[in-house]
Amino acid sequence: MRIAIFSDIHGKILLPFKLVDLYQRETGRKIDFILQCGDIGAYPNIENLDKATIKHAQYDRDELGFHDDFTKANKEIKAFLDALNINMICVRGNHEDHDFLDSLEKENSQNSLFPIDIYNRVFVCKSGCKQTLEKENEVLNFVGIGRIGDRKGRTEKRFIQNYERKEIKKLLKTKDTFDVLITHDKDDSQSGYGMAEIREVLDNVIFHYHFYGHTGEPYKEETDFNGITQSIKIKELEFNESGILEKGCMIILTKENGELSIEIVAQKLTNKMTKFNWKSQ
Asked: Which positions carry the signal peptide feature in this UniProt record (predicted)?
């Protein structure tokens, strides 16, 4: 089983799928799923954009990619996604239409993840819930935790909500071991920011890998304070001033014969998809 992992796509919903297609063509290796670490840019209604997205969208229409390409069916996009036949599973970030996502989550109250797009290819997983991906004889167990933390008691929907904290409390009691934790935020107790709940989860539940985004830092891999989990900061899926994607924006997680390994996709490959040509690739 191979899984492509991205973070912070900010409306460029199609880009992870395009990169997966490129990877498969260049390497001959099949990708089975996509995981995405939040800031999807899921804004179906332009009227509900947050201030940051409005600012960036003035200079980059890609910020509105969910509205433009994933709320109304486009024959070319549908044909591409159908041929690729891969789903992307995300956690919420802080730059989303949370009222929209809340309504879908309530409609799918019995399920641990729910589709958010017209093609049923983009899913959001509920924070703190156990998730399973299966492909042939391999099974990947993971948990997602969305939104960002707050140390000031604020309750806006970009911050973790009390019902999600309750699910996380249930998770803390499990004796299960998981392959992966995906989050948008991180915990950095020493500097006083981030999501404290993530620290609590990593200190009480065994995960082999933790992938996150949000912080703007470069790609980084280190052993977590718990001494067990490999903590990996995924570089945001953003084009730099030269129009290329930076190192560590696309990671491949492989599970084979029960063993996990990761590959940082080389820029030699990702550089073939630039800010100027990616939609036509």
From this structure: none
Residue pLDDT, tens place only, 53-111: 888 888 889 999 999 999 999 999 999 999 999 999 999 999 999 999 999 999 998 99
Joined tokens for residue 30: 């099949």
CB 44 within 8 A of CB 103: no
> Of 129, 231, 230, 111, nearest to 174 (Cα)?
129
**CA dihedral of 216, 217, 221, 224, whole degrees rounded to 10:** -80
- Strands across the sheet containing 220-223: 130-135, 138-145, 177-183, 206-212, 230-233, 220-223
Identify the bridge partners of residue 124 per DSSP, sorted by sequence position.
Answer: 90, 114
CA distances from 238 to 8, 29, 123, 129 (A): 8, 24, 21, 29
For residue 58, what are its two tokens? Answer: 């003035």
- Asked if residues 89 and 125 have their Cβ atoms less than 8 Å apart, the reply is yes
Q: Which of 206, 209, 196, 216 is nearest to 147 (CA)?
A: 196
Q: Which residues pair with 209 in a beta bridge?
A: 180, 230
Question: CB 84: neighbour CB atoms within 10 A?
Answer: 16
d(CA 187, CA 9): 21
Give me the residue label for tokens 């789903």.
Answer: 87
Distance, in Å, from the CA atom of 44 to the CA atom of 211, rounded to the nearest integer, reads: 27
Give pTM, 2 decimals.
Answer: 0.96
Supply the pLDDT for residue 218. 95
Asked whether 16 and 116 are in contact (CB, 8 A), the reply is no
